[in-house]
Amino acid sequence: MVLLFMTLLSFTANATAPEAVLPSKTYYKFATVEGKRIFYREAGQHPKQTIVLLHGYPSSSHSYRELIPLLSGRYHIIAPDYLGSGYSDRPDPSTQKYSFNLLATYVAGLLETLNVQRYTLYMQDFGAPVGFRMLLNNSQELEALIIQNGNAYLDGLTPSRQAFFKTAKEDNSTLQLDKLYGFTGQQAIVNKQYLRDVQSAPETMNPDSRSHDLHFLHSDKDRLIQVQLLQDYYNNLLDYPLWQAYLRRYQPPTLIVWGQNDPAFIADGAKAYLRDVPNAELHLLDAGHFAVEEKPVEIAKHITNFMHKLRAKNNMPLEQ
């Protein structure tokens, strides 16, 4: 009986990750990549599994300030600000055209500079086109994918949202440009981004988030950076078949944690991943587009259990 109890205890311990690990200190750093200063947050020890947190629009690594401490006791965490976002350098968009290829180049360059050779990618919103571009250029560096409201399928975009991105790319009229500038303004950031999905519980959304983002959108040049990325976004839709082919070929271990109350990147986009990665782990959360702001603890638990099972599968030492 004692032996049976100990066997069951051992099985239970290996089934899910242990609770209550104290966080590591988060450090706030800069690295020079191709002559530009790229800001990143780093926590945890380098020899551990590395998780790279890729932020969305109109955010920065600041959006992961609650998730990082929940993970850093077990993992090595890197959360960069893209070129043109947050505390990273922001070359003048009148001379430097911003695109997702550009952002991916600098994130990949940062990881190379930091000698990070193997990592798990957490991709949210803009993070998906940045991340998939990195993977297509170097598929061997990926350990696993974590996807949170980051599209790779047309299923995840309503027809009106698809039309929005198509028009942003093809219509260069002054009227359309004014609309895109409006999308980067305070009213849109507050009400159509952060508070849109949490109208019944606005207290779940930290006002520091939108204040932080708006601080970095105070000038026309800052806003033009994001406008150029919105204009480039339709190219991602055209590249979806390439990303899907990558998933089918490499079958990366994949965790999907998706805020199902998101009306922009809808839940069908999460389910669509299962067509190409049928063994992916899918969790639809009672949250919106910024699920990591609403449900950081729940997301951290899913990540921890996913990474724990990945370590066991790969015969890596499990966390103590």
Automatic annotation (TrEMBL):
Entries under Gene3D superfamilies matching the protein: alpha/beta hydrolase
Residue span, AB hydrolase-1 domain: 50-296
Keywords: Hydrolase, Signal
Residues annotated as signal peptide: 1-15
Pfam families assigned to the protein according to its UniProt record, in alphabetical order: Abhydrolase_1
Coiled-coil ranges per UniProt: none
GO molecular function, one term: epoxide hydrolase activity
SUPFAM superfamilies reported in the protein's UniProt record: alpha/beta-Hydrolases
Stored PANTHER family: AB HYDROLASE-1 DOMAIN-CONTAINING PROTEIN (PTHR42977:SF3), HYDROLASE-RELATED (PTHR42977)
Descriptive protein name: AB hydrolase-1 domain-containing protein
Organism of provenance: Paraglaciecola polaris LMG 21857
